[in-house]
Design goal:
- The protein is α+β, with helices and mostly antiparallel strands.
- The chain has one domain.
- It is 47% helix and 19% strand.
- The chain is elongated, with a radius of gyration of 18 Å.
- The termini are far apart.
Length: 123
Amino acid sequence: MKKILIYFMSLIFILGCSARKEEIYKESFKKLYKETDAFVQSLDTTYESYGVFGGTAHSVAINEVTYTIKPIGRLINVKIQKVVSADEYEKLRADLEKHYENDVRVNEVYICKAGTVMIDCRN
């Protein structure tokens, strides 16, 4: 009987943690979209380009999942600040591509050779 109770409590604990992790992941994506949208908007209204090194002063970090967003010229670089598989970057690329699929200011969302996701806002 004790084994069943321990098993049941462990299962509830694991499922509870998974739900919280998924909630944190969704919240971080909302923040990620908000920040990348701000950069896309600023390239359309405020800045012609962030320049080659100008993005350093404008980079943003989102701590829950540890994303760093850094504009370079008319590209927006999104990097996951922990070691992850290529599948994680592919999922991030697909999510951002879906988010910007109807936005005429964004030409393409792709994984660059450095392994990060780029949002292409070039004219």
